[in-house]
User: Fold these one by one.
Assistant:
Number 1:
Amino acid sequence: MIPERIKAFLLPIGALVALELWARAVHLQSDSLAPPSAIAAALVEAFKDGSILVATRDTLTSAFAGLLVGGAVGLAFGIALGIFHIFDRLMEVTIEAIRPIPSIALLPIALIALGFGYRMEILIVAFACVWPILILSRAAVSAIEPRLIEVSRALRLSPPDRVRKIIIPAALPRIFLAFRLAAGIALIVAVTVEIAINPIGLGAAIMTAQQALRPDLMLAYLLWIGLVGYLLNTGLVIAQRHLFGRAALVGDAA
Amino acid sequence: MGSSPALRLQPSSCIERPQIAFTDVSLTLGGKTIVENINLDVKPGEFLCIIGASGCGKTTALRLAAALYQPTSGTVTFDGEAMQVPRRDIAIVFQDYGKALLPWRTAAGNVSLALETIGVASSQRASRIEELLKKVGLPGHAGKYPAEMSGGMQQRLQIARCLAQEPKALLMDEPFGALDAMTRQGLQDEVLSLVAASGATVIFVTHDLEEAIYLGDRVIGLLPHPGRIGIELKIDLPRPRDQLTTRENPEFLRLRRELFDFIKASEA
């Protein structure tokens, strides 16, 4: 009997072996494909010369900084909109008008205002991260059990205590879910900005490899980005279980 | 029912000031009159039960007593002071215990919320929590989360949180409505002994007529649309009450008949 966890790896490993055999059989010469062994060798080489680590650092720095800035703005507005319905009404049209703008469409403006480098990329990532966090934290706050609000009124909790002891903890599992979602978006947007124009990070490294006619290196970076995204999400899922093991029982435990 | 002033409990011999007093209280929400002209005095230490058909304003009356609602006209006073906002010496036990507890806090943490709020020093909280949980029959459950407790245990926990406020008045909104009969009887007796020990005034809303007679010093019945006081019965059954002998007492049966007829007539 094959253990369940190993079964999940059978298909990808089989595919890799088949690809390798096929590439060798036809003596693959291509600008877009490379045999798995060449990709693995390129990945090792990129680690050895440190270039992949520098690129990863640049991309993650921008992604995280953007996530933090956008998350903070989104969270502050989301909580305020969830608590004060008047504010929600006032902002409704403004938010719905700005939200559909694709973050990448800000690239030309951001480039003129801030030039190449981290700041421009962080701004665009932040813009993309504001919305999911704003909308999900607003929903999380307004979905808080009204009875809990009544309990806080009956106990006459002060407004700061009400936010600190009731609203934030009650909304936190969903807010964390919003951050997980936004972390994925941050990575996607950061790499996109790098591929489009910004000469740093993993996105730029893929472009360089492509222009150097190195499909093995290009695919090595592609695999690595997938792996980074997977590790990021896994880390956040573990953190979520660790932080909200009990609280996650309420609301959506997703 | 042209006799509403006569229904106001005001024994001439009584020199005690009422603890909770409703004077001509009406509440209109969204153009609909929910309760109208309620006059009611509750003495300190009294156990008052409110019964009535569904939608008659029982819960609304309780919320007015807690100042969770403000009357459209009339006044609600506590110890002679008009109430603008809820008071910490009035505790309210909600029917839906599952929603009224903080699911991210343990049993101890839920009791602690009330202690933190009334300003009990953190060094003293642990011993107070232990004492309160023991009092409501939850010793050794301090570390459990509400989701890990049965309905009866959760309601006990909510009562412990209310007792932590050291309330002068305890307002209970159909607290045992969602519990099975055995758990309910056990909790009825526990509430009677907890209240007897603390001397708190109680307003207890229920739709269970027998429960109202079994627990109360007095039962008032509300008529629906709009809610107003329709009947008032003094319960002169000996205390301590007993689930068997009290419920077999001829006076208990007579009161039950009277309330039953009242409810039937009010629904007609």
Number 2:
Amino acid sequence: MNRYPLWKYAIIVVALLVGAIYSLPNLFGEAPAVQVSPARATVKVDAGTMARVEEVLKSQGIEVAQVQLDATSVKARFNDTDTQIKARDALDKAFNANPAEPSHVVALNLLPRTPAWLSAFGASPMYLGLDLRGGVHFMLQVDMAAALQRRADVLATDLRTALREKGIRHGGISRNGQLIDLRVRDQASRNAAVDLLRAQFPDLVVTETAEGTDTRLSLAVRPEAARTVQDQALKQNITTLHNRINELGVAEPVIQQQGADRIVVQLPGVQDTAKAKDILGRTATLELRLVDESTEGLAAERGAGPVPFGSESYSERGGRTVIVKREVLLTGENLTDAQAGFDDTQQPAVHLTLDAKGSRIFRDITRENIGKRMAIILFEKGKGEVVTAPVIRSEIGGGRVQISGAMSSVEANDTALLLRAGSLAAPMEIIEERTIGPSLGAENIQKGFHSVMWGFLVIVAFMCVYYMMFGVFSSIALAFNLVLLVSVLSMLQATLTLPGIAAMALALGMAIDSNVLINERVREELRRGASPQTAINAGYEHAWGTILDSNITSLIAGIALLIFGSGPVRGFAVVHCLGIVTSMFSSVFFSRALVNLWYGRQKKLKTVSIGTVWRADAPSTKAD
Amino acid sequence: MEFFRIRRDIPFMKHALVLNAVSFITFILAVFFLVTRGLNLSVEFTGGTVVEVAYEQPADLESVRKVVESLGYAEVPVQNFGSSRDVLLRLPVQQGKTSGEQSEQLFAALKAQNPTATLSRTEFVGPQVGQELFEHGLKALGLVILGIVIYLAIRFEWKYAVSAIIANLHDVVIILGFFAFFQWEFSLAVLAAVLAVLGYSVNESVVIFDRIRESFRRYRKKTTVEIIDNAITSTISRTIITHGSTQIMVLSMLLFGGPTLHYFAMALTIGICFGIYSSVFVAAALAMWLGIKREDLIKSGPKAGDPDDPNAGAVV
């Protein structure tokens, strides 16, 4: 009656092994490390980089514990922090020969000290949350209304061009919030305009209102298209943030979308919030200027003379000097998009889209300066760099600009990225910010650990005294529950936070409930005079229904927290829910296995060690 | 060892009326404090900035307060946090200043006054986030209530579901009453604790109801009141031991968890204590007032429309 078939034991052994292997990495702690990752999208980190890291460290006589290569970076682990800092300086010097234009991010990091044989199983420790390791957390809200307005601007420009090409007369196009208003005078042009809209602008929905003799067509961006615009705005902002954060030299920044219009940025280890915020909030600016092609200017470009008055010298990517006039013709504000693509002759090109104002100005500039050169300059950190300086071949109207010639497709991509990175697709605002000092983080870990440990020990002591052998089984099951919970969290690579540790403590406190229920039931059966084997069986059986009910109600609360919780509450909820699930396995299935193993084989079991079984009608009898 | 040497069923339900009056008064008091004093909501809900500064020596709160006032903040709470060397300041949202400017300005001023000051933690929450968290909290509470009522109604019967949820909401209101009365800070973590307690103390009612159902089957001659008394008596040892064990854990958090977990553990403590009381006296008594009957639960038993059922009376 109290025997488990072999397969049940097999399941338990497997669970024990898996639990042990995946929870073990959490015990090894972390070692100081240096991480080398690319600072620009065009720089690749590969086996060559790894070899170079090893070589640099060897030549400097720096002892390294381990060098590893992953998808985006090379990480070198050291034995102490002194070596780590020495190595960082050496690597920084080697990889970023020109400190003004770093090509790699060389950052201090902490790496788990997981032994190789554990890593081979894919086991790695839980990721510590910011409240446990220190760092900065930002939540940014993207202004989606602004993104939609920009889109409406672009569509209005396109529409104007399209109407002109078709020769449709209209009474004016204007943007009204996120809507575009198009006025038409007569029925014929109204029909033509509606046909055009249907054919070329599927993203717009038309509503008509008559205004005197005119008809006003109100054009709204279709909800699906608006969603795409918002998605893209969010993605572009995330890309831009990535580029900017790379400069901070943070080892493992987290930049994630949260909800429809929010971005969470977490920078572990960063303490200087002011700098971090400065970099996040910076708007890189784009400027369009003419190249100074006077004789003095050309001389200065060759390095044969001083920069003429009214002009400035900037270097182009690739190192050439370009002398440009001071007068700014257009700024990045008027640029709505930049995409890499191909021109008519299948040469790589970059396609720019300008807004209404930008395209008007651009048309005028190009008309007046055919044959001359125009420079697009990107300013970041107050430093300008000429992205490209093409020759103007013809007048360009309509706001669609194509830069092509003498460019590989990689360069085209890079230029488009740079142009886009210059601007955020929509303005952002910091709506939540958290900084946690590293010492506070360490303190939090210790406090969390102590709460769990002392609570656990006292419960174990009580259970063993009160329920004797059954208490020991319950305690082992409780310990197993902790191992299982930690291993599941490690497998999921969940982020452990202080509320998560609190949930772990609470999970243990609640998990013991099931064992108390079972033990009390077994005692009760014994009190009623059942034989030990029957009592064990009936105790487990009767308790099971109750345990299931009570765990399900707890789980309902946990799931509600998981759905509606954010930030710290979510961390709590994840551990809480997992803890309930693992506790059902450990405190019912696993503890039964222990009991069966211990008592199940004894055919003539007379007593079980479960503490005092007190009977009201008889003098107290000890059952062990 | 055995703590509970109970010879016969304790007549809990005899005192139900008195105890229910007591709960009712506690409940009214809690609501009264909630209305008059309100909850001391943390910045997570109200929006604003929290700055925690650590000093090398025990901090002089008076001089810190002066520095804060010199920056133009009136009535900013300045308090020790965890130890006398740590100071916690809560700044309200200021119009026209972006998130971190406030905390930076404040910290610079504090550093000028005492160079040993180090910034342990800052937290800024925009007002829109606070509002949202508040709404989400209410939604979560609603979902928990609905989920539990539906589950219990399916598993038992609507009378049980209703009495369990009322009993446990009474706990929640009392926890909130405590927070309002003592003006303890009500943070997101406390909200999580309150919801966890709600799920947890429903357990207790479930255990008792389970027993009531079983006793209805086992003792066919006993009255409803006797059944309830019997069910509570036979589960009381388990109730106290499990809550005791959970409380050991919570106590450990209260003692070792530091200031961050303090109110979280406090909410759990109150919740656990009142959870025992409300499950025994409120939930069971309410179920009694609502008139639970043997026939409500035992659907597999002899059917009323089938007097010739050969199995009649053979239910164990």
